[in-house]
Amino acid sequence: MTKTLHHRACHLCEAICGLTLETTQGEDASLAITSIKGDPLDTFSRGHICPKAVALQDIQNDPDRLHQPMLRVGSEWQPIPWEDAFVLVAERLAAIQTRHGQNAVAVYQGNPSVHNYGLMTHSNYFLGQLKTRNRFSATSVDQLPHHLTSHLMYGHGLLLPIPDIDHTDFMLILGGNPLASNGSIMTVPDVEKRLKAIQARGGKVVVVDPRRSETAAMADQHLFVRPGGDAALLFGLLNTLFAENLTRDS
Ligand code: SF4
């Protein structure tokens, strides 16, 4: 049996933790994943791993995993070649859009699709050709305002400011729950340890949220806001900054 170590990144969520996978090749040339661990040498995640990544081998080895396209014929599913599937999908999509308009086709992309090189680099070509306005994703649910403000302020939707969580002494979190999301857009594996490190060096974590979230529960201060009152809160903050001369030019 031959054991090999592979260093990879977990693609399941925003945190992109570094993983060390061990595979074992049997004498019959079969390959099995025999261990999945957090990679302590990954400078970002520093060995952190969560149960989802440990279970990656269950996805890999799931007997129900699809390895080729399936076509439903009556109540049965039949495997078909990729070429046939491409032709079928192209014909059906074109027919639906010809009959009902471009927007009759909707797309939903799950979160891992932005952690996959193939989808990230090529899906836009396909989606652009579809010319539908009905595109939904984790982005359209929770982060398009980030992209819009970055576009308006810095000229590109992906010029995203990242909080320096490892060096800040005051972390103000507005409506975020990084303990659940691992920091949407800010990418913070093992965020609980990083937030506790702020507190350990004498800093403060303040959460503004109408809900007592997991992050709020560990914050130094949790400020409830009435749902829908976010804009008033932000205007109040801006007003105080200018009224008390707390702004600076650069
Ligand atoms: S937090 Fe878990 S799911 Fe997310 S990247 Fe890390 S190991 Fe993967």
What does this protein structure show overall?
The protein is α/β, with parallel strands linked by helices and 250 residues long. Among the domains are: 2-61, Phosphorylase Kinase, domain 1 (2-Layer Sandwich), CATH 3.30.200; 66-100, no CATH class; 170-243, Dimethylsulfoxide Reductase, domain 2 (3-Layer(aba) Sandwich), CATH 3.40.228.10. The protein has helices at residues 51-54, 56-61, 82-100, 117-130, 138-142, 144-154, 178-181, 191-200, 214-218, 230-243, and strands at 2-9, 18-25, 31-38, 70-73, 76-79, 107-109, 135-137, 170-174, 204-208, 221-223. The mean pLDDT is 91. Iron/sulfur cluster binds next to helix 1.
In total, the number of strands is 10
User: Which segments are poorly predicted (pLDDT under 50) over 5 or more consecutive residues?
Assistant: none
Tally of separate helices:
10
Radius of gyration: 23 Å
Task: Please tell me the CATH architecture of the domain at 170-243 by its name.
Answer: 3-Layer(aba) Sandwich
Q: What is the strand content? A: 15-25%
Q: What structural class is derived from the secondary structure elements?
A: alpha/beta
Strands of the biggest beta sheet: in what spatial order?
1-2-3
Order of helices and strands: EEEHHEEHEHEHHEHHEHEH
Q: Can you list the ligands bound to this structure?
A: iron/sulfur cluster
> Class of the domain at 170-243 in CATH?
Alpha Beta
Taking the sheet with the most strands, its summary is: 3 strands, antiparallel
- According to CATH, what is the topology of the domain at 170-243? Dimethylsulfoxide Reductase, domain 2
Q: State the distance separating the first and last CA atoms.
A: 62 Å
Describe the global form: flat
State the helicity in percent bands: 25-40%
